[in-house]
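HUMAN: Would you supply a protein with fold tokens?

ASSISTANT:
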Amino acid sequence: MTPRRIGLLHPGSMGAQLGKILRAGGHEVKYCRAERSPRTIQRAQEADLRPVNDLEDLCEGTEILLSLCPPEAALDVAQNVVTAGFTGLYVDANAVNPERMGVISSLVTKAGGSIVDGCLIGPVPTRPGTTRLYLAGATHLTDEISVLFASSGLDVVVLDGGVGAASALKIAHSSFAKASRVLAALAHALAAEYGVQQALTGEARRRSRPALAEPDFFATVAARAWRWAPELAQAGEAYRTVGLPDTMLRGAEELLRTWGEHKDIEHAPLDQLLRELRTDQQGGA
């Protein structure tokens, strides 16, 4: 296949790995190093991505832009891309709700560009079979993105329905997956107060496999809380839009923000994490 000129916003853990996959496929992948952390720049270098100085440089001559950023920044990133003059194919793979995706789509298409709605479910794809990239939009556009990842470790699934379908899937999946982990943490915090945490874990393992049986995973949850909290905020908006209650999601979002200081640190002690939940509740009473 003919190599494509691709821009990446931004090379975080997931973005850098996708950039690495695209580079292995023979494509040129650029990223904007302005305001990026040393860690992000190092990831980009390790993935053999080409740095440019600003967003205008990133957009110039680029055929496809892949947006992977925190959900609360997705709309601003799209607006900045449009302001920079990009009129190619914009792939928004952020955890935004369908309504927000609709706004982003309007921005891009009114400026003369085209858009594919995407979502990633699974960990950073370092081996086959773990992670899926779901795509939605016009068939000729989703086909254009699918072929970029052919024979890679990333599974691509094209959804029926137009722009917004992939975002809806991500929000539906993440609202359950993230909130259930937070509820499990609360359950363990209560059990710890009464000295029955081991019994709770044993009962959960006896009856089920879910989050309640995996308290050791809370450190990973805390490390990702800075990303998960905004995702749940997006999910809450989506639930409200269709007349469903968002109370539990808002509560889970608030608790995730309690763990915000553990960003990207996956070894916080379990007793500390549970104690932080308890202290937060007492302080807010």
About this structure: The longest helix spans residues 165-193. Residues 280-285 have pLDDT under 50 and may be disordered.
